[in-house]
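Exercise: predict the fold of this chain.
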Amino acid sequence: MAKTWEDLQELQPVVLKMFKNSIMKDRLAHAYLFEGMKGTGKREAGYLLAKSVFCHSPLQGYIPCEACVNCKRINNGNHPDVHLIEPDGLSIKKAQIQALQEEFTKTGVESRKKLYMIVHADRMTTNAANSLLKFLEEPHAHTIAVLMTEQAQQILPTILSRCQAISFQSLSPEKMIEKLRLNGVDPQLAPLIAHLTNNLDEAIEYSQNDWFVQAQKIVLKLCEALKKTPLEAMVALQDDWFKHFKEKEQLDLGLDLLLLVFKDLLYIQLGKDGQIVYQNEKARLEQFALQSSNRKISEQMTAVLEAKRRLYANMNPQLLMEQLVLKLQEGSSFV
């Protein structure tokens, strides 16, 4: 969590410039929406903004000193006037927003200022979103709200209209690959990981994780099974997939790995071998590509993307994967 101004400057220079201008002109908005893919530094930027707001001795008037008691408490996650809300299970509940509202009826412990962050704001229940909307419609003075999301389209338009949207740009896969290689990651594995996350620490963790190595093997084994009978494909699900991808986040990663296989098949068919990410499996993927068509692969990619959407619409994971496998064998998208 303890990312400094310098740490984030390279990753999100536009966001940092906006922070600087708003702080120096005393024009911070009462509500922000940080939108961008996982690993682009949204949470770190939220804490950085909090430090800029609460710092006792900001450098040049806007950069947190990182040394005062407020900066240290925010870095340690225990500042009394900085609050973080995350999904409780699969969603953010109305009770969580109500508890936040009650907290904000109290006078600030250290000053009149307060800041709250809502991670995965797109996962608020309808009741939670409506409670937050009332909160945003009547903002407390000296209060800053920071909503974070990878799926802005899932948030109520009425909430979006009350927030200043800030887009967090992804590091290009090429730059991420370069950073991974500089950190000692296998050059043949780096392209695959670079397409899964924009977070360097998480990417390095993947490269050292036995679970992740096994996940790749299981995804490719499922692709082998898809060329056979539906029964054999279902057996592959039961024997390997469901035992390995147990949590929702793990299943989401498994679907991402599967999607990248189909993308590689498409690149091979288009003669763009240099863009494939499963470089260690190139020979096997070339055989897969010979047995399919551009149209079928495109339909399979659509089916995987739809499965990812349904995963976060609380569909039963086992049923989701069984339906997906049948659709992938047909080569058509979900109906």
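Check your answer against the key: The chain has 16 helices and five strands.
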